[in-house]
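Reopening: structure tokens for the pyridoxal-5'-phosphate complex, inputs below.
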Amino acid sequence: MQVLIKRDDLLHPSDDLCFCGNKWRKLKYNLIQAKAAGYQQLLTFGGAYSNHIAALASAGKLFGFSTVGIIRGEEHLPLNPTLQHAHEQGMHIHYMSRSEFRRKQEAEVLRQLEERFGPAYVLPEGGTNASALQGVEELVAELRAQTVIDERACVAVSCGTGGTMAGIILGMAGQGQVMGFPALKGDFMAGEVEQLLAGEGTKWDNWTIQADYHFGGYAKHKPELVKFMVDFSQQYGVKLDPIYTSKLFYGVFDLIEKGAFEVGTKVIVVHTGGLQGIRGWEERFGTGGSPL
Ligand SMILES: Cc1ncc(COP(=O)(O)O)c(C=O)c1O
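Re-run output (same inputs, fresh job):
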């Protein structure tokens, strides 16, 4: 069998590593649409360490939009590295109570935000929508152009909202397999992906969710995950992030060891970036064993 890495972590339009990987894929058509519709401002939602918040702030600065980030919970000063970055890109940071944040899709909450900040192209938390899926499909088109997609291909990807995985499933159009590795605990991911696919009017079944590699839940870790991340970086010269891609690669390697892949399978692991999260992670858990 072969293991290939799709290095989307190297996909960034500037030196700014916050706008790379699946963020570039997911934002591309959203930014095009926002420009075409005449919006000058982008507004989105996220947690205080969100890769999506960091990416949208960078994207806004790069392409001339002002940005508003609605952050779950209270303000903590000094700003953590993610929010400091967002602030430096000019993002207006607004904190929302956890209870209101849960209602952020409701028309009344959105109306109040518009009243306060003015008209804005609104992206959901994590940036997952139909335009995001369209951008991710291009990742598969590149793999096809590199002739690595055939019936033996198995594309492995990390899941948060499931949008990146859904875009890959659409791009694969029934060929090969897709495996999703949730970074969060819980059994909701398959339902999320199904719903995203249904929204595109399609229902492929060549995909599975590998739910055993969340290491306790979102942003949780265990010593063996940190060791894996550090060893991986030293052995292959590829840095992983502690929240998403380290869990993904750990899971793929574990499944290989367990003989879960058929002989001849071509495993294509998508490195979705997320390296900006390392600094915030170090801030919370210390630099011992850090991949940086
Ligand atoms: C680096 C990285 N990889 C993977 C994911 C998961 O993407 P999705 O939310 O589309 O499932 C995210 C964000 O959510 C991410 O930041």
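The domain at 21-127 is CATH 3.40.50.1100 (Rossmann fold). The radius of gyration is 19 Å. Marking as resolved unless the reporter disagrees.
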